[in-house]
């Protein structure tokens, strides 16, 4: 086989040379779509001087003028370069032997003499004068270099560098690390000295911007440059410049992306598929997801959509309107760069002036308004949101609140959590409340407050993903956030009902320290509020919705783990050494298997006893709760809530939000203790879990600073003490403390009276204020206060 390959190589050498540039052997052409700034004439240029990259096609389908008549005009214009030998090459910078990876042959790496000049990286058959040049990689500002890495060295024994050009990629190898670094530095230095290159699209956009007040010139630009107009043919190169072999996609390599240039061309193909697709939403979602993952492609897609919505042969058909629908989704998801944004706004105004009172005019108006509000999204719009955007409508969002109630609100892609909170307060008549409210995302086992600037559309989209992963339902809930003044809440208001429901949530989670008798009384009051007077026929909620379940589990586990009486014979045998009945050998595996089986049976028996004891304890607790419920006959719902909250208020920390933290006792962090950190309206307190009395309490006036000291450590400085807590709720604690401090500043009217600095530093060192220095609030509250 090797002999046949050599014969084929010798016989077809001339033909292979002609095709060599497609296999990376030669690069003696420049990309047609790129032009150096210094190539422009000193006297300027006219708008029609830009080389076209698409076959000329006017709006009515007739042929127009073209600069190039070549059938490959959409691919490239080849600029020939004089072939020269090694002795004629000027300004040699670096030269030496390197191994190059050659594909398409049984020899993986071949040795060549490489020469780096100011314009290119060439390789020759040898270092002697007159040696034949085998290939050239022209260096421009879009070329890129990948530096040597240890992984390749471990796998191959060579240090490698990779040089990306427009069509070729040179993978070079050497055994010496310093030599690889030297070549990479030299090539990168040449690339950095090259002037930025621009595509014809960029040059034409600049022409349009310069002549936007001259309609005749703008029409002349569009008429003579089909690259700006709709096409049914494919796109062979991006409309904007991207680095060759761009590394942006490597962060998402698991999703199957190629280089940014390749993805740009693929996206245009996806855009064209919209015209004939039966269901456009999956394609639109795919385009948006690619733009979310590969940020540089956002401007490219905007340019492609502007192109496909300009001079369309059939502008009012449903197929053509698909481009406008995708442009609508893009405008509500990503903002283009400043230059492309100007170009897009000009395009929208132009369409509105050319097609007034049309569907395109409606889309253009909607997009213009969206661009004023859009912020970069964290999630790709959901299927429902895309369908709403395609018809330029708003979505219906359901917001729950404590108890069985809910409200439905219409939201757009730009609606934030703060806006929903404000509208919910208006709907429920809570505008005058002294307390603050927030939205929470929650399921049956978990909840987290939503930051005020977060887009509700992103939250709803994330719910779809979470529900598919966890098989649990997620909801948005409107709840009390900062309890600043519980005494002013009217018993007849819905805010009082919120307080009752959220207090009961703390009880069920075990975050209200109380004796078991009080907890049973609270459960009975809860039943009286929900069900009315006791009845044997009334459907009763499960115990875990009335009583903290962890108390039952703790009690049962303690009873099962208590030492039991041991028979006297076993007591006497405990002090004697156990004789080895069988020597280790053939029976060892059998004995081990028997022991494992016995342990498994014991575990199963233990679990059965645990479940049985839990049922017994639950029945006993439920019976006690029913007895107390019977004694509440005649209590109204309002009376039951008032009695419930009266018992809850006996705890000194009533109204605070508890976070489980690891408190570092030593300043070095060598010892820690699991505690509750309670954040309230007037102070921050530390509680031992399950105990009602605070270990320590720090009024806000004593706190000098607080903030995040590293990825999971929260630090509070009170006087001369530094308190360190390790927790997974850093963001929530920061937001809540910020909200409380903002409320305090607002109530005082002026910030000068406050004596605290709020920090959100990732460094361990915190800034402390002197007594004479005016304090500052560095972060605004996450929700309205």
From TrEMBL:
CDD domains, A to Z: FERM_B-lobe
Entry keyword ATP-binding: yes
A GO cellular component entry from the record: cytoskeleton
Record localization: Cytoplasm
Region (Disordered), start-end ranges: 32-72
Domain MyTH4 per the UniProt entry, residue ranges: 230-390
Primary localization class, coarse: cytoplasm
Superkingdom of source: Eukaryota
Any coiled-coil regions, as ranges: none
Keywords: ATP-binding, Cytoplasm, Motor protein, Nucleotide-binding
Polar residues bias spans: 51-69
PROSITE patterns with a match to the protein in the record: FERM_3, MYTH4, PH_DOMAIN
Gene Ontology molecular function terms on file: ATP binding
Record flagged with keyword Zinc: no
Domain FERM, first and last residues per copy: 395-752
Pfam families from the UniProt entry: FERM_M, IRS, MyTH4, RA_2
Domain PH, chain residue ranges per copy: 91-192
Protein name stated in the entry: Pleckstrin homology domain-containing family H member 3 isoform X1
């Amino acid at each position: 086989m090797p002999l046949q390959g050599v014969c084929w190589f010798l016989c077809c050498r001339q033909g292979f040379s002609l095709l060599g540039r497609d296999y990376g052997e030669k690069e003696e052409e420049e990309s047609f779509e790129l032009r150096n700034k210094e190539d422009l004439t000193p006297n300027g240029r006219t708008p029609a001087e830009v080389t076209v990259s698409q076959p000329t096609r006017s709006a009515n389908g007739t042929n127009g003028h073209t600069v190039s008549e070549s059938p490959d005009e959409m691919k490239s214009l080849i600029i020939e370069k004089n072939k020269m030998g090694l002795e004629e090459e000027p300004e040699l910078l670096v030269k030496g032997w390197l191994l190059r990876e050659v594909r398409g042959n049984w020899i993986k790496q071949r040795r060549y003499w490489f020469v780096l000049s100011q314009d290119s990286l060439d390789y020759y058959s040898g270092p002697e004068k007159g040696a034949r040049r085998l290939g050239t990689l022209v260096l421009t500002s879009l070329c890129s270099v990948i530096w040597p890495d240890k992984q390749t060295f471990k796998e191959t024994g060579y240090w490698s560098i990779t040089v990306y050009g427009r069509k070729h990629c040179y993978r070079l190898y050497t055994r010496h690390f310093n030599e690889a670094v030297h070549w990479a530095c030299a090539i990168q230095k040449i690339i950095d000295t090259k002037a930025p290159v621009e595509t014809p699209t960029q040059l034409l956009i600049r022409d349009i911007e310069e002549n936007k007040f001259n309609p005749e010139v703008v029409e002349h630009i569009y008429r003579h440059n089909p690259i700006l107009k709709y096409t049914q043919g494919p796109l062979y190169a991006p409309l904007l410049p991207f680095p060759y072999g761009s590394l942006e996609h490597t962060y998402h390599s698991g999703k199957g992306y190629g280089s940014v240039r390749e993805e740009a061309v693929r996206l245009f193909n996806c855009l064209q598929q919209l015209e004939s697709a039966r269901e456009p939403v999956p394609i639109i979602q795919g385009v948006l997801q690619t733009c979310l993952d590969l940020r540089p492609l956002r401007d490219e897609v905007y340019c492609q959509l502007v192109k496909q919505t300009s001079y369309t042969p059939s502008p009012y058909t449903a197929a053509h309107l698909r481009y406008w629908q995708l442009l609508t989704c893009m405008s509500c998801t990503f903002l283009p760069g400043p230059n492309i944004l100007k170009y897009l706004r000009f395009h929208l105004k132009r369409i509105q002036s050319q097609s007034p009172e049309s569907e395109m005019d409606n889309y253009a108006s909607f997009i213009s308004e969206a661009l004023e509000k859009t912020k970069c999204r964290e999630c790709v719009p959901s299927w429902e949101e895309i369908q709403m955007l395609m018809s330029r409508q708003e979505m219906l969002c359901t917001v729950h609140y404590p108890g069985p109630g809910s409200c439905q609100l219409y939201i757009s892609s730009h609606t934030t959590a703060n806006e929903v909170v404000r509208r919910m307060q208006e709907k429920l008549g809570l505008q005058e409340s002294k307390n603050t409210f927030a939205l929470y995302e929650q399921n049956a086992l978990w909840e987290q407050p939503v930051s005020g600037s977060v887009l509700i559309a992103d939250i709803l989209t994330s719910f779809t993903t979470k529900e598919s992963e966890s098989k649990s339902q997620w909801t948005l809930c409107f709840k009390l956030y900062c309890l600043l003044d519980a005494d002013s809440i009217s018993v007849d208001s819905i805010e009082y009902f919120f307080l009752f429901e959220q207090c009961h949530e703390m009880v069920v989670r075990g975050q209200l320290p109380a004796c078991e008798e009080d907890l049973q009384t609270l459960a009975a009051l809860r039943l009286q509020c929900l069900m009315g007077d006791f009845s044997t026929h009334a459907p009763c909620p499960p115990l875990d919705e009335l009583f903290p379940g962890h108390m039952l589990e703790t009690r049962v586990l303690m009873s099962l783990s208590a030492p039991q009486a041991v028979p006297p014979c076993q007591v006497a045998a405990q002090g004697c050494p156990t004789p080895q009945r069988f020597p280790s050998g053939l029976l060892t595996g059998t004995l081990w298997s028997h022991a494992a089986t016995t342990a498994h049976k014991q575990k199963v028996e233990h679990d059965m006893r645990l479940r049985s004891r839990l049922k017994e304890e639950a029945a006993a607790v439920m019976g006690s709760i029913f007895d107390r419920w019977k004694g509440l006959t005649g209590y109204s719902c309002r009376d039951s809530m008032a009695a419930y909250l009266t018992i809850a208020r006996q705890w000194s920390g009533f109204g605070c939000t508890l976070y489980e933290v690891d408190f570092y006792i030593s300043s070095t962090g060598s010892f820690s203790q699991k505690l509750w950190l309670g954040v309230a309206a007037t102070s921050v307190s530390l509680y031992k879990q399950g105990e009602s009395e605070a270990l320590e309490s720090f009024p806000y006036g004593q706190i000098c600073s607080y903030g995040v000291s590293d990825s999971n450590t929260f630090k509070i400085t009170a006087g001369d003490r530094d308190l360190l807590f390790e927790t997974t709720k850093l963001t929530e604690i920061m937001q809540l403390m910020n909200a409380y401090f903002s409320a305090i500043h607002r109530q005082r009217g002026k910030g000068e009276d406050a004596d605290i600095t709020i920090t959100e530093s990732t460094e361990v060192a915190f800034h402390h204020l002197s007594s004479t220095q005016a304090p500052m609030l560095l972060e605004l509250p996450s929700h309205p206060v």
